[in-house]
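Two proteins follow. First one:
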Amino acid sequence: MPHDRIIVLKIGGSLAEGASLPGWLAALPAGRGRAVIVPGGGVFADAVRHEQQHLGFSDRTANRMALLAMEQYALVLADLVPALTPCRTIDEMRWTLAEGGVPVWLPSLLALADRSIPESWEVTSDSLAAWLAATLGARSLVLVKSVAAPRPLEPAHLAAQGMVDTAFPRFFRGGDLALDWLGPGEEERLADLLAA
């Protein structure tokens, strides 16, 4: 499929803790052949943070564990939404899109292979979603979160407010890549966006 039709959709891990997750998940099949899902870390990443404080292991190790936390959430999403196919590589994503599926990214392989991605808490799933969108040449990056964001969406302002990680302005390069944000109550807007 043409790269400029791809939508990279980051599904926040915090959504798993609220009652709205089924509504968000119900919209995802509308993205068949167009959307690539990036999972947040959610409670799985929170467990890594907690154990790092308790055991004192390095940020490098915590980062690798957090990537696995994202993969755990990805597997949960794929289990709940049969249209989603777990993918590790760009080729797997492109094949899944070409077959009319919805890739959900397992990020460890690609993220660890790129030395430009810091192995620290400076980078979370938000920056990884921006990295993937740039790598795929996507049309847009949509962050789906449990909070609303101020408009206009300015990456540096979002980072300063703690709404995305501090590396996000560096990884979101803009240009032809559009940025969108969906918050509470916007499940129908997601379905419309994916169906457009």
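Second one, unrelated to the first:
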Amino acid sequence: MVRVVSGLRERKKRDTSERIAAVAAELFAERGFEAVAVVDVARVADVSEQTVYNHFPTKEDLVFDRSAEIEDALAVAVAGRPAGVSPADAAGDVARGLIDRSAAIPLDRSRGGMPRLSSASPTLGRAGLERTRRQADRVADVLAGQGETPAEAQIVGWAVVGVLQLLIEELGAAQQAGEDPGLTASRMHDLLDRRLERLRRL
């Protein structure tokens, strides 16, 4: 019984979080990130302002709501890569998933998404780099745990996550320019393949 109640509570929490993030994306798409206050998001989502902060500690977290998910995916991919597979190639699978998810979003809806908002807002650009640092440190920790020296692990962690950060910036620029999502995806996959090939030769 306790487990059922706990499961329902977690599902309700997740549903509330997703609803708040969806409302925020719509408002950011309509008005821009800087013009929307957390209280606006709370009002439209029909929750208290404190509830928003309970789920998203900062306004920027409303945009980077999948940052922790990406960080976890990178860590799992690098930690579980088969013998002979480089960290860059393992992380490349995460990047390909991000490209494909972005391609599935119609251009008119991309205005409220993380890549496009980040490319248009200096505040979000800085916040994105902070999250990139966390992701790079997480990958470096995984590599250090597999026997790499701390210095080498840090270099590889930044190189791997840097490729992903560049892709996000380029996705945002393409969306802002109004490029067809399918064309963007094809171009980003090609860029990713070339960059991974270059990393293999480092």
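SUMMARY FIELD: The chain has nine helices and no strands. Residues 2-59 form a domain with the Arc Repressor Mutant, subunit A fold (CATH 1.10.10.60).
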